[in-house]
Design brief:
By secondary structure, the protein is α/β, with parallel strands linked by helices. It has two domains: 116 residues, Alpha-Beta Complex (Aspartate Aminotransferase, domain 1), CATH 3.90.1150; 221 residues, Type I PLP-dependent aspartate aminotransferase-like (Major domain) (Aspartate Aminotransferase, domain 2, 3-Layer(aba) Sandwich). Helix content is 38%, strand content 16%. The chain is built from 13 helices and twelve strands. A seven-stranded mixed β-sheet has the order 2-8-7-6-5-3-4, with helices on both faces. A hairpin with a 6-residue loop joins strand 9 and strand 10. Helix 2 packs parallel to helix 10, helix 3 packs parallel to helix 4 and helix 3 crosses helix 9. The radius of gyration is 20 Å and the shape is globular. The relative contact order is 0.18. Bound molecules: pyridoxal-5'-phosphate. Pyridoxal-5'-phosphate binds next to helix 3.
């Protein structure tokens, strides 16, 4: 007799994050996890230095943080549920809404955690091929079955950088059965805000009771290490998640830093502008006969090579110089690398190393 986990769990390939080490490299340039190259929001750090009380339990309801989020974005405070990263909210949504055999739909090349969390609940992940690496909403609709419970739409999408337009999403939601929850993952929304035809999920979700919007503090706010994210949910979904979540799921430092970061408009603006400038610069530098650089509205570029071997050899070449980018095999794009936008100098070094590799 052996101690056995739930059999569905053994079917999960554990998530592997972006690399952060390269043996022997004098300097590491980490372009593998879409982090903010400017570091953490200075206002978040300032708030932490003023108010760090580790001996006390945090506020289990994240009252001040939810108030600050609601005020900033014109949302209803009671519909906000905070988590240790938006990962935790994805996990809670699956736990609460997915039972054995229920289907969770998402685009084939999108965030890996949707499938992982669906499986932990005995759910069936269903991956729907994109059109030109953009989530294909008609194809997702055509794949809905009586067992479908959740559709995840990452907007902009990780790792492709593409996005779906507001009218398309509205039409999609209206054609989707009302008992299916649409989850718009807005992890990279701030970066897309300069795109004329992009709209973030909040405006769409405000008057509806069938859409959840996910946000994270890990990307533009530079707080990935603290673990903070939230969902803007229909009232009934917020009530359900509040029953599912742990009593103190968001740490006190994360709450304090999150409030500080939300007031850091100058940092956000600087990060958005820098990202656009260097994303465009990098895309131009890398576009060549041998590389396809996909259009991106986020803080990374997906770059496709002629073969998976060439992509992997290039990744190794970069790693030898301490430049870490993400191999896309786990995302079913083995011929591609995802390169986060770093500082200007980091992008110059990365592009020079790629050009050197290509000869
Ligand atoms: C699309 C998407 N959603 C969610 C997350 C998770 O973010 P967090 O750090 O808030 O858990 C990521 C992180 O890479 C992401 O790319």
């Amino acid at each position: 007799m052996k101690i056995q986990p739930n059999p569905a769990i053994l079917d999960i390939a554990a998530y592997v994050g972006g690399e952060s080490k390269a043996d022997g490299a004098a300097r590491i340039i980490k372009l593998s996890s879409n982090e903010n190259p400017f570091g953490a929001s200075p206002k978040a750090l300032e708030a932490l230095s003023r108010d760090l009380h580790l001996e006390k339990y945090p506020d289990g309801n994240c009252t001040e943080l939810r108030k600050t989020i609601a005020k900033k974005f014109g949302l209803e405070e009671s519909r906000i549920v905070c988590g240790a990263g938006s990962d935790e909210i994805i996990g809670m949504l699956c736990k609460a809404y997915v039972s054995l055999g229920d289907e969770v739909l998402y685009a084939t090349h999108s965030f890996l955690m949707y499938g992982i969390f669906a499986k932990t609940c005995g759910g069936v992940p269903v991956e729907i091929p994109e059109k030109n690496l953009t989530p294909d909403l008609d194809a997702i609709l055509a794949s809905v079955t009586p067992k479908t419970k959740i559709v995840f739409l990452t907007n902009p999408n990780n790792p492709t950088g593409s996005y779906n337009k507001p009218a398309e999403i509205k039409k999609f939601r209206e054609a989707l059965r009302p008992d299916i929850l649409l989850i718009l993952d807005d992890a990279y929304a701030e970066y897309a805000s300069l795109e004329p035809s992009y709209e973030n999920g909040f405006n769409f979700a405000k008057g509806r009771d069938d859409v959840v919007v996910l946000r994270t503090f890990s990307k533009i706010f530079g707080l990935a290490g603290l673990r903070l994210g939230y969902g803007y949910c229909p009232a009934e979904v917020a009530d359900v998640l509040n029953r599912v979540r742990g009593p103190f799921n968001v740490s006190a430092p994360a709450q304090v830093a999150g409030i500080g970061a939300l007031g850091d408009d100058a940092f956000i603006e600087r990060s958005i502008n820098h990202n656009k400038e260097w994303r465009e610069w990098t895309a131009k530098e890398l576009a060549s006969n041998r590389l396809k650089v996909w259009p991106s509205a986020a803080n990374f570029l997906l770059v496709s090579f002629d073969t998976a071997d060439t992509a992997e050899n290039c990744r190794q070449h970069l790693k030898g110089k301490g430049i870490l980018v993400r191999q896309m095999g786990a995302y079913k794009l083995p011929e591609s690398l995802r390169i986060s936008i770093g500082t200007g100098e980091e992008m110059q070094l990365a592009c020079a190393a790629i050009k050197e590799f290509l000869g």
